[in-house]
Write a structure and sequence with these properties.
heterodimer; A: 349 residues; alpha+beta; two-stranded antiparallel sheet; B: 116 residues; mainly alpha; 4 helices; 72% helix; 0% strand; elongated
């Protein structure tokens, strides 16, 4: 759990709004900028997102701009990047041809709105998981969307340490063992003990892949972060957890039972069967998906979600944020333990 | 509610705060979920903890010297060290963990158990 810096005033505060407009005019090389509308967007459990409609006078961005301002919530989770790191990673993905909103500016000066923020172009569509998972209007498009997701993930995984360096990311020797060590250290900082999470971590340690290809992984590639517009994938959102890792990690996260919600038979994140996604990913990446590794990273996904659940509960218990949604996420721990234990049952002797 | 946090009392306090500060702001669905968990925790929370402590006491063959929290810590440490990696010990440990997770789910989200 982390505390967000600066003020809790919203960006609708008149003084903040004026400073924000001045910042944008300066960053855009414009004569002036008027903010016509600011609306808080739904979703974003850890970050706050605001739709920001601008009128820019002069400069390269002259005209009306539909943008999104992204900033940290009052409290967050420790694994999440700061705004500048996320901005750089998202921009890198954009350059690699991934469907992501174009990143415009990142401001680390806390005197503007009270905390760092980034501004990006606003992509159209709906990210709410209910649309993709449940809405009948997209039922016919789900297989096509699964294929698009495979193609997009293949593009993300073209970003590798051979060609890209980020001073805030170090490629791990073993992504699995590195993550296990990290989560054990996180558990050791807590007052309580969590035997079922320990069980999952021990299983992951004993079954860790001997070697891994290292690529950029999104680390939150699942329903809720896919912007769907008229039955078509329009953007991959929320890059706050991205980092170097095994490409199967993203596939395991997407397919893990915890992200299928009520659609347990649609193994691709409650969206579709795995096959169209696997086929599109393999065709686009030239990389063969190893089902044993995917299953390994599905176990990991539940362990990781369990660790995030603990941090979500801390936002109220430690950080004092009156956030019922986050607190209830903390109470998903037993569901995640059930999945960890189901997937790692000892073999009958 | 054993190791689950926030426990019933904390969750009640948070729900009261949310209702007081913003009675129409929080989705009604979330409030209802929280109130259901609080009620089930009041009814079953203590017995879930007691059953888990009994299982661990029986597993280790002794009563916890300094309370159930220490036994839970010992169990977690032993799992990390690899003492439950195989054989009957692994099976028993897995059974205890599964029973405990299921019992807690009866409080936090009993519908999950209906959806295999």
């Amino acid at each position: 759990m982390t505390s967000g810096p600066g003020t809790n005033k919203t960006v609708n505060d008149p003084a903040i709004r004026t400073r924000l407009a001045d910042y944008i005019a300066d960053a855009a090389g414009a004569n002036a900028c008027a903010i016509n509308q600011i609306d808080r967007l739904e979703g974003g459990a850890i970050q706050e997102n605001y739709a920001l409609d601008l009128d820019v006078s002069g400069g390269a961005y002259c005209g009306r701009l539909s943008t999104v301002l992204r900033t940290s919530a009052q409290t967050g989770v420790v694994d999440s990047h700061n705004r500048l790191s996320e901005f750089i990673l998202t921009h890198t993905a954009y350059e690699a041809g991934v469907l992501v909103p174009q990143q415009l500016w990142c401001c680390e000066d806390e005197t503007v709105i009270g905390k760092p923020f980034s501004i990006m172009m606003r992509a159209t569509g709906e990210a709410r998981r209910e649309i993709l998972a449940c809405d009948e209007s997209v039922a016919a498009a789900r297989t096509t969307i699964a294929e698009q997701l495979g193609q997009q993930l293949a593009k993300i995984h073209t970003i590798s340490p051979d060609r890209h360096t980020f001073d805030f990311l170090t490629p791990p020797l073993s992504p699995a063992l590195s993550a296990i060590s990290y989560y054990r250290a996180q558990l050791d900082k807590r007052s309580g003990a969590y035997p079922a999470i320990e069980w999952g971590l021990r299983w992951l340690e004993r079954h860790a892949p001997a070697d891994s290809e290292i690529v950029l992984v999104h680390r939150d590639f699942r329903v809720g972060n896919f912007l769907i517009d008229d039955g078509v994938l329009n953007a991959i959102l929320d890059w706050e957890f991205a980092g170097w890792g095994d490409p199967h990690e993203d596939i395991g996260w997407l397919c893990a039972r915890c992200w299928r919600f009520e659609n347990t038979n649609r193994e691709l994140g409650g969206i579709a069967e795995r096959a169209p996604f696997y086929h599109a990913y393999q065709q686009s990446s030239g990389r063969k998906i190893d089902p044993v590794r995917v299953r390994y990273w599905e176990v990991y996904a539940h362990v990781r979600w369990a660790m995030i659940a603990l941090q979500q509960a801390d936002r109220y218990l430690v950080g004092g944020e009156a956030n019922l949604d986050a607190a209830l996420s903390g109470l998903r721990l037993a569901e995640l333990e059930i999945e960890i234990l189901r997937m790692t049952a000892p073999k009958a002797s | 509610m054993t190791i689950d946090r926030p426990g019933g009392r904390d969750l009640k306090q948070l729900t009261d705060t949310v209702l007081k500060n913003s009675p129409d702001g929080e989705p009604r669905e979330l409030i209802e979920v929280a109130l259901s968990i609080i009620a089930r925790d009041a009814e079953k929370g203590d017995s879930v903890t007691a059953a888990y402590t009994n299982h661990l006491t029986s597993f280790y063959g002794q009563s916890p010297p300094n309370g159930s929290a220490n036994l839970n810590r010992r169990f977690a440490d032993d799992i990390r060290k690899g003492d439950m990696d195989g054989g009957e010990r692994a099976k028993s440990a897995h059974d205890i963990l599964q029973a405990h997770a299921r019992a807690r789910l009866e409080i936090s989200n009993p519908e999950y158990l209906d959806n295999p």
